[in-house]
Amino acid sequence: MTVTSLRLWRGKSLPLFASSSLSALAGRPAQAGRRLFALILCLWLMADLAAQQRKAELPFAHLTIRDRLSHNTVYCLLQDQYGYIWAGTPHGLNRYDGYDFRLFRTPARDSDSAGFRGTTITSLLEDHAGRLWVGTAQNGLNVRLPRASQFENLKQDTAFAPIRGYHISALYEDAEGLIWIGTIEGGLLRYDPLRKRSVHYNAARSGLSNDLVFDIIQDRQGRVWVATAGVGLHLLQPDGRFALVPETVAGADNLAGYHKSLLLDGDSLWVGTEGSGLYGLDLRSMACGRIRTSPPISEGIRDLHMDSAGHIVIATAGDGLQVYQPASNQLDIYTSRRGQPHSLNTDALLCLMTDRSDNLWVGTYNGGINVHWPHQAWFEHMIPQGQPGQQPAQTRSVLSLMQSRSGTVWMGTDGGGVFQWDPQDASLPVPQFVHDPGNPASLAGNVVKSLLEDQKGRIWMGTFSEGLSRYDPATNRFTHFRHAYWQPGSLSGNNVWSMAERQNGAIWIATLGGGISVWDPRTERFRVHTTDPQIPGSLIDPNIAVVFVDQADQVWAGSLSRGLERWDPDRQIFIHHQHDPADSLSLSDDAVRVIFQDRRGDLWIGTEGGGLNRWLGGGQFERIGTREGLLDLNVMGISEDQEGWLWLSTYEGLTRFHPETRTFQSFDFRSEVNTNQFNQLALITLRDGRIMGGGIEGVHTISPHRLAKAPPAPRVFLTDLQVFNQRIEPGPSLNDNVYLKKRIEVADTIFLDHADQAFTLFFASTRYDARSQFSYRMRGFNDDWQLGSPGQNRATYTDLPPGSYHFEVSLDGEIAAVMLRISPPFWETFWFRVLMTLLGLSIIGLSMAIMVRRREQQHEQELLVANAKILALENEQLNNTLKTQNAKLMSSSAQAAQKNELISALKDQLQSLPVGAPDRLKSILDTMDRELKGEKYWEEFDFYMHHVDKAFTQAILARHPDLTQNDLRICLLIRLNLTTKETAALLNITPRGVEQSRYRLKKRLNLPREADLRQYIHGFDQPTDGS
Fold first, then answer.
1. CATH superfamily assigned to domain 716-827
2. May I ask the CATH architecture of the domain 61-379?
């Protein structure tokens, strides 16, 4: 058997000790007591040596080029303020976040690079301001400001001109914030980051014995110590020069060595040398001495570090890792051990670093990074080794476990028979019983699925397909029980899966295919319970995977796929409990694999696929699954430790569950070198408190009381932002958009565009466990926490609507958060909406105004048409009236003219009478003159002219205001189309007088001679026609 260590999470580091076998010491029977004393002393010394060897099995995990580390040689290590681990290698600078390495480097020949320059990274420092300093072998210093994402190379800075081109071997910040830079062959440089000035120290003018500087440190008095190649140390004096301290002593070691490392511990300065070992210097007395231990400390010391316990951790150049305890002057040695995958993978170590969670990181030569996790659990792993001729596969799978009353652990294997193991001994399990085809008295079969010790101390061994074997230690003999269908009272089936003993000594035996056989100790015969549809209360399934007797002597049985059976002894029937999808208080799954009762009396049922159930009574169950924290829904074994925790074996590993606090602690085997899938019912608690689980890769044991308390709360931080799978850096990035104004680790806001339809946020923690299970949520989109799968370190979102969101990621209560602002398209912005609203309102207002104006115009048009129609009607009526009046006037004028002509004719005739006519005749003539000269007609004519045809009169007077009353009469008479004769009769003038009046009127009207007076006068009638 081999003994190895297995790292798991959420536990404590347990150094596991490899067993040491002692050779048999032969001696002659006549040897005296002094030989016996020598034998005892030898045994004691060898036991002490074995203890030392066991102590040397400190477990480590390894990060190498397989994990994407750029090179397996690591010169320097650093944890920065955010939690990243930085590793300097010959092939660039690596940044590790627990999941992946990110590489920073530029080829040495690229002298034009403005950013990070260098390939071989030799030293690292983060100062109090958060600046990250990176020393290289050929390209000087690189520095990155706290909130910057890019490095700046300082090779061309004149302040660093004295060390340009030299190998940077050490970086140190003193109490005043000054940066000390040690070089190989370039001496020492002190740089002031605020004043941008430097001071150069070298052997030629500063008192250094040589220019090969390997380490710098400042003590509590503010004194600066410098370690160079050769003897002694250098102490900076007030005059600015270095002095060699302590002084060289003839014949003494004098801290001789090429490479040196310094470690300050209060008033003690420890000096590790590559050449003469470890020294201690008392800073008060300046007394210095070499540390001597047994075994001796390595003389090839590469680095020194102090752990939280005050021990000095020593990295050596070939002797592995050494831990010196100053208080006891003891030395522990941890070396690489072949065949043990969790030891150091090389003994050539270069640098050391402890992070803020007390994890020890070791940089190695060609071994990558070795990490010891003090807060993680390490299980002891054993694989039984069979007898000669047996195949390893036949013995490595452990199907069943049982600890007898004597303390011996019995192990049933899948093909290798039965092994025994003494928990008090570090030796391997030894094969005890195997099937021998030529010996009927041997074990019935080598596939042993179940083990039981009865009240009489006999061991029952249930096999697969070979029935049942009972071993009696008192007689050292086996008794076999097999199924014989022709023999009543025989075993019901040969596939014995589980066994349990009642208080009366009856043993209930679960078989696959044969139901349950109950062995009666009085008759040594079996009573069979199987399925029978004709018998109410019979078993519902003949395939029984587990049988269990509780503290009240109640028998329970779990079938392979038909649920849970409870035996009612009074009615002699089985009561069935099965899964009901419609009943949340029913059994979670019908595939029952384990039944267990804890010290509180609670009954627990583990299922394959349904997780854990607690019996509530009355046919009801409480279900416990992955939502509640269970590692896996396939519960194959249950046991209880001394503190009341239930240990559950699953396909994914081990989980321990506290029934009162309902808290879980899981131990995941899936990604480990020595993986294990636990077998059904192969989980027990040993009397010394250790939990032992059997699986396809042997057994694992752990002492629950040695599990550490919860590790320090990890710091959770964001590590990357990708948009469309492209990494985003601060400043202008994809499509010249500014997504980040600061580095993602310190960014408070991420700015995204609506077109960024897919983006991913990456996160990590200072636990550096690639299987950590984060929870995350995007408040404003989904306020519920989402539990990621183990190892998931990213959250991807697609088609997130524009708006403001708050992303949070959590691990063990620690939260990292960042705001996200997704800008909408311009048509969805507030101002665009306001503008569009105003524009819409303007358009609506304008449209309404246009509509109103159109309606007004339409109304005006309609009004004009109506007015025109009214005017036309009025004109028509007026014309009709005028025509009527004209007709009347013409008729009157004609009558008047006719009357005047008649009177004139009568007058003429009367005047032709002889003179001297009677006076009566004269009277008639006078009357006729008066009638002819009367104004009554003209009065009517003037009334017509001024009132009836007023428009005509006003129109012609407006154009010709100088017209007389007679002129107007002539105009009206012309307008009435009267003949010259009719006009002359009306005016009582001669026709020639009418012509003369028309002539004078034409002149007053300023008409040319050839103009038509009648046409001109009728021209004033046009307005009355409505035009």
1. Immunoglobulins (2.60.40.10)
2. 7 Propeller (2.130)
Token pair for 587: 């059994």
Look at residue 1000 in the predicted model and tell me its pLDDT: 85
CB-CB contact of 951 with 1023 (8 Å): yes
* Residue 877 DSSP SS3: helix
Q: pLDDT tens across 494-504, in order?
A: 999 999 999 99
Query: What's the whole-model pTM score?
Result: 0.67
Digit-coded pLDDT (tens) for 540-562 = 999 999 999 999 999 999 999 99
The encoded tokens of residue 783 equal 């306020």
Tokens for 633? Answer: 């829904």
CA distance 256 to 301: 12
CA distance 240 to 250: 28
Show the beta-strand stretches assigned E in 724-770.
726-727, 749-753, 758-765
Residue type, 17: F
Cβ(403)–Cβ(98) below 8 Å: no
CB atoms within 10 A of CB 530: 18
Is 993 buried (19+), middle (13-18) or exposed (0-12) by CB count in 10 A?
middle
Cα separation, 145 vs 742, in Å, equals 11
In contact, 483 and 514? CB cutoff 8 Å: yes
pLDDT for 376-423, tens place per residue? Answer: 777 778 888 766 665 655 678 999 999 999 999 999 999 999 999 998
Q: Give 330-341 pLDDT, tens digit per residue.
A: 999 999 987 677
In 357-448, which residue ranges form alpha helices assigned H by DSSP? 392-396
pLDDT higher than threshold 80 for residue 648: yes
Six-digit token string for 706: 């040695």
**Rounded CA separation 205/733 (Å):** 50
In one-letter notation, the amino acid at residue 750 is I
pLDDT at 912 over 70: no
895 pLDDT higher than 70: no
Read off the amino acid at residue 82: Y
User: Which one has a higher pLDDT value, 821 or 880?
Assistant: 821
Q: What angle (nearest 5°) sits at the alpha carbon of residue 92, between those of residues 88 and 93? A: 50
User: How far is Cα 529 from Cα 510, in angstroms, rounded to an integer?
Assistant: 10
Task: Could you list the beta-strand ranges (E) of 82-232.
Answer: 85-89, 92-96, 101-104, 121-126, 132-136, 141-144, 152-153, 167-173, 179-184, 188-192, 197-201, 213-218, 224-228
Contact call for residues 105 and 118 (beta carbons, < 8 A): yes
What is the domain partition of the chain in residue ranges? 61-379, 384-481, 716-827, 831-1025
CATH code: domain 384-481 is 2.40.10
Give the contacts of 699 (CB within 8 A, at least 6 positions apart): 381, 382, 383, 384, 398, 401, 411, 692, 693
Helix (H, G, I), strand (E, B) or coil at 231: coil
